[in-house]
Amino acid sequence: MSKIKGFFITFEGPEGAGKSSQVLKLAEYLTSRGLECVITREPGGTDLAEVIRGVVKSHHTEEKLHNETELLLMEAARAQHVREKILPALAAGKVVICDRFSDSTCAYQGGARNMSMETVDYLNDFASAGRKPDLTILMDLAPEAGFARIVKRQSEGFDRFENEKLEFHRKVRQSFLHLAEREPERFCVIDATLDRETIAQKIRQVIDVALF
Ligand code: TMP
Q: How many domains are contained in the chain?
């Protein structure tokens, strides 16, 4: 029997960490334990927010997408997603599993794009209506290893973020690890180089403690 109703889980990590497949495995597990799950992602998760996802991920050759615009687009997508999908699902007692959330904004726009962390924190809080994840699984991986995986599965080339230099992705990884150090009670850091089944098992152990 579950202890909590309405639980918010986020997955974070650099490119190629294997978050998406673990999101699916976790949802399968929770469903088998009798919980109703909503799988979603950021940027995106609603029709409008998915439009913004397309804008931020695609290349713009005619006009530069400025860092400030990128940050605000991420937050606009989040504001819509949180109010339209996440908060209603949590209020209905469901488990929400989100592939990336505010910590990605801290790592990418704050850490890697070097934007003021104070501004990022303020906007994250504003966009998410102050709702923080109850649990964050950080799938940690060196960018070199992540890119080796992405290259294998890519057919249509890199998106705007994947296209950034290795140094950018190193900063993303360091920022995530720093965030996890700052909030050890919310974060669970998993070595994403382990095989998929071992990772899934580790995640289930953490979830069992949190939810059952
Ligand atoms: P992904 O779903 O393939 O991980 O793509 C989302 C991309 O958007 C990824 O490169 C990380 C980036 N991103 C940010 O830069 N800031 C954010 O707040 C979020 C949610 C994602």
A: 1
Kindly report the CATH number assigned to the domain that includes residue 143. 3.40.50.300
pLDDT block averages, 10 residues each, the chain of length 212: 77 94 98 97 98 96 95 98 98 97 98 98 98 98 90 80 94 98 98 97 97 92
Report if residue 2 sits inside a domain.
no
Is ligand 1 within 6 A of the CB of residue 105? yes
Q: pTM, whole model, 2 decimals?
A: 0.96
**Helix (H/G/I), strand (E/B), else coil: 163:** coil
Give the DSSP H/E element, type plus range, for residue 98. strand 95-99
Residue to mutate, 102, 109, 161, ligand 1, most ligand atoms under 8 Å from C-beta:
161
Residue 55's domain spans which residues?
7-211
Question: Ligand 1 within 6 A of 158 CB?
Answer: no
173 lines ligand 1 (CB under 6 A): no
